[in-house]
Write a structure and sequence with these properties.
Blueprint: E1 14-16, E2 22-27, H1 33-43, H2 52-60, E3 64-71, E4 74-86, E5 89-99, H3 108-122, E6 127-133, H4 137-145, E7 149-158, E8 162-170
Parallel strand pairs: 5-6
Antiparallel strand pairs: 1-2, 2-3, 3-4, 4-5, 6-8, 7-8
The structure holds coenzyme A.
Coenzyme A (COA) is lined by residues 43, 96-99, 104-110, 132, 136, 138-139, 141-142, 145.
């Protein structure tokens, strides 16, 4: 059953990764929830991984944009973002991007990000913000190569002990035609 209304015509569903594997990026569906919880639980330590109830309510929110990446008919990653209104502008707040360890460094994370970024643009936004642990070097590099800039440090953001960077990516508004 389809949950997301966010699929935008024109975004490719299917992309060839650098190693020629085929990756499908599609909107999250209700029956994906178990798999997304499983993936989040192996991508993050206990206490940082999202509880099922939270993920479920987030995914069903009309302000959320969620995409899953499928390789070989198996979901290997997902991205969730919320679109908020700030000073009359739409801003994307990236909640998470998770890719299973065995599917990393193939471009799956980039495809997921491109899909949610396009969805933010489609809703009239031109900015995404996120928080990332200062200890998560892989994710920091990933976001920097996508064009994010570090905007500040949030003390004890995770588990009341680990600091986070807040990062932001802005892009030019797409020309209206
Ligand atoms: C961060 C994450 C989503 C990246 O996913 P991915 O599918 O491996 O990313 P991609 O293959 O699209 O990487 C694109 C580029 O990002 C950078 N990058 C990604 N992972 C990196 C790493 N471990 N070390 C250095 N650079 C990295 C590289 O520039 C990479 O390009 P390259 O492989 O050609 O060098 C993945 O590592 C992950 O799920 N980590 C655990 C969950 C997490 O921390 N999520 C972020 C939450 S804030």
């Amino acid at each position: 059953m389809q949950r997301s209304q966010d699929w935008i015509p024109g975004i490719p569903y299917v992309s060839a990764l650098e190693n020629a594997e085929i990756c499908t990026v599609r909107p999250e569906q209700l029956d994906d929830l178990d798999r997304l919880c499983e993936i989040d639980a192996v991508c993050f330590p206990a206490g940082i991984a999202y509880p099922r109830e939270y993920l479920s309510s987030l995914l069903s929110s009309p302000t959320s944009i969620a995409r899953v990446a499928v390789l070989d008919e198996t979901i290997v990653g997902f991205a969730v973002l919320e679109v908020r209104e700030r000073a009359l502008k739409k801003v994307g707040e990236l909640v998470t991007i998770d890719v299973l360890a065995e599917a990393r460094r193939k471009g799956v994370g980039q495809l997921l990000h491109a899909s949610v970024e396009r969805a933010v643009s489609h809703r009239g936004g031109n900015k995404i913000r996120l928080q990332v642990s200062v200890e998560n070097e892989a994710a920091i590099r990933f976001y920097k190569q996508l064009g994010y800039r570090t905007r500040g440090r949030i003390p004890r953001y995770y588990l009341n002990t680990i600091d986070a960077w807040w990062m932001e990516k802005k892009w030019k508004d797409e020309p209206k035609s």
